[in-house]
User: Fold these one by one.
Assistant:
Number 1:
Amino acid sequence: MYPKTAYFCNWRNKVIAMILLLQPAFALAQTKGMEDVVYLKSHFGLTEVHGTLIPLKDSNEVAVRTRDKSVWVFSRSDIEKIGREKLIFQSKPKGWYNSTSVSAYFGGDKGYQIQSVVGYRFLYRYYAGLGAALDNYTIRSLPVFADFQGNWFLTKTTPFNYLDAGISNPWPPDNQILKYNGNLGKKIPGVYLNIGIGQRLHCLHNDHSWQFSIGYSLETMKLRYVQTYTSFDPADPSQRITNLYTQTYQYTFNRLVLKVGFTL
């Protein structure tokens, strides 16, 4: 009996010791997927800050360390509440981004666009940058624009709005030039506008994301053609006079846009 009892007690002690050793690991696993969230009443458009709370000596202030190691300190009078949320994806509060997208145009004609944007993301959800595109719709062009985006929520999948505004630079190939109107003399830039709404799908553990959106695009431009012809001088029929005739075509394109893109 004694050897069996001693054997049983020995294993029981080992199991208890193992449970005690693994308990911190279980607790860490449960809290690893969580993060602290400070919800603000009003702070220059900032509504919430995600990170880890830092103890402070002053009980009237709250400090949060975000994932980029920045420390934010707020007065308790500016805080609506403090909570914890499930950490869905590893998003940094700010940083540079590059977005590349392809669009399909539908309207009076059909076409496509390929664009690239480089900019800066701030306060977790807002994007501002500069972009350029190759736009091929009736008349090919090279738009240059400012890009603004905003996510609705700080989640892995979130709706977002976007606005691109700038100038459209005509760049027609030979098959888009009206040659019977003479030579293309001047390409006059116009307005470029692209506005829409979509869904952003963040990749897990980083700030990369896919975007799928639908929107409206407005583009204007002018092409000026020049024709030359000669006539005889009525006062001296032996002399010829060279005449110039110009004709300007103005284009306005209203288009439905379906866009898919990826942001790094």
Number 2:
Amino acid sequence: MVRIQFQTVRLEDKPFFDRFFRSGQHHNSECTFTYYYMWRKAGNIRWALVDDCLCILLDFMGKPFFFPPYGATEANFAGVIKKMEEYFQSVHKPFYMRGITKPFLELFQSRLPERFSFSRDRDSWDYVYLGADLSELTGRRYSKKRNHINAFLAMHGNYCYRPVGRGNLAECLTFLDRWFSSHNANRYLEKEKEAILDIMEELDSLDIQGAVIEINGRIEAMTLGEAINDTTAVIHAEKANPDIRGLYPLINQQFCRRQWPDKLYINREEDMGMSGLRKAKESYYPFQLLEKYTAQAKE
């Protein structure tokens, strides 16, 4: 048995991760270094190179799981999965994998048929939109969004849209502190705040782009995202003052229009099974729900 040598996620690992994620083959929200860097503490994330594949292990509340082995091929897939199984045996835990997109599901079915059981993980499906839909909000189905934005413009027509950068970092952090303080604290929000603050400290080292909406000189909304590949951008975080009508749809529209005009798709990540978040994401009419599955070894 070969023991996998794991490492923690460090900023200097970014070029290595990018080798696997910049190929253009993946469009799911987990395929950026930023994702693993920002959640590395909350998920006790570790990684290893196994047979030329990037293997990422997350241990959330005592239930470890792997993501699919990035870089796997028909030739080495079965061998990498076997080593993952051996790892779980060594820690006396059952094999468990999440984030399995359809290409990886097909690898399982072709290389390891009848060995694992799979379940659709609806709460983790990514909402993928056409960039033009979010930028323009045209057509009857987006009439409510346009009405909300028009109501905002009628009240705050002198708003300012600004990029996030070192020049306004302190104001951004003040806004985030205000936003999280105004929402009922729970374990997820505490971890999310920590994750966002972590990447805000490393704006110059990560590939993140961001923007804020200012009203009367005060930041009232902020968003952060990055390109996954040449065709797709992902939104990592979006926060706005919920008491200001139209602010959420405005920053979503303006960020897509100004920052990502060349992207065919915008991935706004999953809803985590939260009913309010699911309703909000569905209201933008996704072009695709990017399905993901879990895998467990059969008895």
Number 3:
Amino acid sequence: MRVALASVDNPYIIKSGGKHVHLYLLEKGLQYNGVYVDTYYYVPSKIAFITKIFKRFRNKYYQFKSAIDKMIKFYEKINFNSYEIVNAHDVISAVGIKGNIILTLHGYFARETINYGNYNEKEKTKIFDYAMEIEKLALKKAKAIIKVDSRLRDYVINSFNIPENRIFVIYNSIDTENFKPINEQKKKELRMRKGIPPDKCVILIPRRYVKKNGVVFAAKALRLMDDNDLLMIFIGRGPERENIINELGSDKRAIVLDAVPHEQIVEYYQLADIILVPSVISDDIEEATSLSMLEGMACGKVVICSNIGGMREVVKNGQTGILVPQKSPEDIAKAIRDIKRNSELRVEIGYNARKYVEENHGYISHAKKFIQIYKYFINH
């Protein structure tokens, strides 16, 4: 079987975020299962850097539309006829590719475009409308659509009237050989190397600083707790960084770091005691099968996450993790205290979480699910 994977994002350049990790692991998993794979990631033209100089003189809608149009034209020029399957991983590449495609989507393109940007109301309307047009074109074109949770499936059915029999749900995967538990001695050594006190209860928030990730609510929760043995480590980048820092104030129990390459982030999971994923519903966007959640679980940690989206489809509350109401610093603070004070429960949940991820989210078995869909559409 010959398969082409296409995306406007290159996981070998951008080594963080759920979509990028998914692409890298899918390629690796398909090859492990004997599939021939080529990848087609968007490469900006040589004049792209010149265009950037003039961006400040353009309105944001024009910037957005121009960037999307260039990406679509990039894919229009590629001949995919030698492949049995072309699997696009975003709506932009899907619109540009000629012929039949299988489309894998990791989120809500139009909604996330607005949520991640800094636009005025007029810009929001124009950008959202154009993004929805692109999203609609891609979804109507695809022979099959793979979504990473059932809520995203329902979104496609209800918002675009796509027949249910064209949509499949395959939850995200991770590399369980890389993301794995370590013993207490190695944990202490890791903390020493990174300058993290060995006696602190470390809460890791490995999230992009955007509205939908709700990171500011972790900062609010810290302010509700007077425990001196806590240390919150924030890792990410994005427009909400300033709000997070302002909320934390001068609290010495928090460290706000920039994004860390994906191959290095595993050590932060391993040195932590609790992983916090405080996502919120923002601009009608709900968290899918959070990669941060799965990676934390794979490392045998207690993951506290919001009771929304794909996270509540994965986590069994009190067994494989802890679910809390969204936008509730009080509930986050209570969950942290409860887990911090109950070491037996912490160990039990961590063990169950690791076992669950090993059995359900390994990247090799994940790739086999894609192969089954590929084969079905080759034969039909």
